[in-house]
Structure formats: C-alpha cells, structure tokens
Amino acid sequence: AASVRLLGAFDQYVLGPGTKDTELLSGDHRAKVSRTAGWIAPLVLVNGRIAGTWETDADDLVVAMFDDAPLPELKAELPHIARATGQPLTRIRSA
Questions:
Q1: Nearest-CA neighbor of 71 among 84, 80, 62?
Q2: Which of 7, 48, 84, 94 is deepest in the core (most CB within 10 A)?
Q3: Cβ within 8 Å of residue 16, ≥6 positions away
Q4: CA distance 51 to 65
Q5: Are 81 and 44 within 8 A, CB to CB?
C-alpha cells in the first residue's frame, strides 16, 4: 500500500535491519541517515523505504528528500509530530 510516514531518530524500523540494508535505504544516502557518532536521523518513509530525513525548526517541519524526490504529502503527519515533540508545527518546508 502507498504510504508516507515520519519516524523519529533511532527508530527500530531502521535499527533492526541496519542502515546497510539496501532494500530499505540506498547506499548513496547512508551517510545522511547514519550520521557522525552513531546518530540515526529522523526518517521520511515512502512506501516502506527511507526517502528522506526531517527535523523541526521553530514552527516548521523541515524535510530533506533524497534524489530530488518530490516532497510527498506529509500534512497528515504534522499533528503526530507536533504532539510527539510538543512543538506547534504549522507548515512543512524543504531543506
């Protein structure tokens, strides 16, 4: 099923198989997900594959999609992330 989901940093979805699993994440983008000192970035999943990363900046959800992928419809995820972070997120923008 087509889906777009946002996962937090260090989510088990990626930690289980690991960032070397090319079915989940293209090797070209591994460094964007698995960062310095073992930091695993918050993730954008599109149809179950890692397609970008996200962060918050004031009232914005800032999304960086890989390979110039179009920004998927993430509006439905805003309330979930706002509740989880305690931030009143009002818009989505590209990094």
A1: 62
A2: 7
A3: none
A4: 6
A5: no
| pLDDT per residue as tens digits for the range 26-68 | 889 999 999 888 889 999 999 889 999 999 999 999 999 998 7
Name beta bridge partners: 64: 53
First-residue to last-residue Cα distance in the chain: 27
Cα separation, 62 vs 77, in Å, equals 13
Single pTM value for the model: 0.88
Residue 5 has which token pair? Answer: 């989901």
Is there a contact between 85 and 54 (Cβ–Cβ < 8 Å)?
no
